[in-house]
User: Which sequence fits this backbone?
């Protein structure tokens, strides 16, 4: 999961965004919400959910010659349906198309209305636009709250809403100050190895591949989530070994810090740390003392 976040961070920084838009409307008679992120090269990332179920469905595809085609997969990862929109206009207020079952050929009409765009630029400002997230728990789903201040080119994640599936009941709302990673700002994992899946929020990307996230743990007594205080660069969680691994690199890859942690009473406890630096004479990395 951490590697995926690093790749997505690189994508966001490498391609100018063509359209980031949230829609609501219907497939046939069923209410849905659709969030799209379309890049300048035509790559399209999207999710949608039926509002009476609230299970996010990932539908990636392409925008080509004004036709937006998004693919819905089955549990085996094979294409089972398409959502197709002809004459796609990122500035349009409506989105009209068809949902098509690829096996039977059955078609359902799609009618959507734009709710908002995620806009960028130093002179633009807006507040409290909520984006559905692709990751969810068995009985809960997430929306990040985003805002854009004048003087800051990019939008920020200012909060997260934890909602109950099927009822849309607000379980908890948490204030944040994080970079926006689009539809993948939220990830799911068992971060303290207690057998309960919780969530994390992408916080920031740094020089090189280093990233950070905020990790939230679950309190069964209150049915609420709390910020764990887990800190580190590009953390990876090994549920079999019940260990957290950190890999931090800098200086164009010439310096690496690797650390291993265990979790005791919901705290990260350092077990060992190794520091490596590139030695030009040996043309290899050598272990050095960690500062």
Assistant:
């Amino acid at each position: 999961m951490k590697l995926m976040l690093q790749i997505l961070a690189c994508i966001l920084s490498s391609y100018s965004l063509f359209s980031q838009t949230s829609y609501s409307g219907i497939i046939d008679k069923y209410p849905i919400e659709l969030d799209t992120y379309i890049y300048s090269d035509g790559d399209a990332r999207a999710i949608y959910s039926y509002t009476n179920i609230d299970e996010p469905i990932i539908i990636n595809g392409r925008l080509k010659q004004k036709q937006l085609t998004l693919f819905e997969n089955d549990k085996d990862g094979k294409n089972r349906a398409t959502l197709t929109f002809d004459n796609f206009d990122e500035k349009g207020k409506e989105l009209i198309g068809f949902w098509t079952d690829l096996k039977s050929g059955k078609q359902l009409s799609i009618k959507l209305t734009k709710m908002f765009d995620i806009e960028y630029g130093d002179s633009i400002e807006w507040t409290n636009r909520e984006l559905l997230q692709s990751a969810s728990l068995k009985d809960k789903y997430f929306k990040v709250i985003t805002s854009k201040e004048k003087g800051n080119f990019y939008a920020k994640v200012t909060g997260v809403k934890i909602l109950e599936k099927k009822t849309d009941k607000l379980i908890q709302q948490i204030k944040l100050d994080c970079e926006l990673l689009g539809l993948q700002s939220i990830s799911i994992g068992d971060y303290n190895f207690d057998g309960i899946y919780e969530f994390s929020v992408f916080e920031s990307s740094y020089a090189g591949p280093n990233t950070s996230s905020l990790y939230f743990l679950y309190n069964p007594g209150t049915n609420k989530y709390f910020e764990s205080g887990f800190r580190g660069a590009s953390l990876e969680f090994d549920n079999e070994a019940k260990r957290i691994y950190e890999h931090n690199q800098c200086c164009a890859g010439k310096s690496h810090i690797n650390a291993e942690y265990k979790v005791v009473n919901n705290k990260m406890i350092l077990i060992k740390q190794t520091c490596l630096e590139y030695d030009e004479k040996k043309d290899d990395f050598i272990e050095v003392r960690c500062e």
